[in-house]
Amino acid sequence: MELQSDKVTVQKSQQELFNFLTDVNNYEQIMPESKEKFQVKSQDTFAFALKGMPEIALQIKETREPENIKLGSTSDKFDFSLDVEIQSLGDNQSEAQLFFHGKFNTMMAMMVKGPLKKFISNLAENLAKI
Asked: What domains can you pick out in the chain, each with its CATH number?
């Protein structure tokens, strides 16, 4: 399953946004309002839970400074990644877009597609506000 957010403009340079998103502590600031739990597990891993959803742990798996951050699930049950692409729009502005790549069976994909689309849209919208 492939999903993507709209592109959003962020009032930070490409490098500033990259630095912000490679610090897992900062993800709490961009979580949706439906967040029930957020916990930093290590320097590159955090866990969160949204209302009505199971807890998910994400780890920074790969980075390409300053334009790409790849987060991946730490669970075998939910095999997915979330990529953040960052493009420079000038000294104090950048553009970000999130891409979700998941390997789910058909039934699971049908159940999670709506909530996941809303989740990545919320993350992108909240990025634009930082």
From this structure: 2-128 (3.30.530.20)
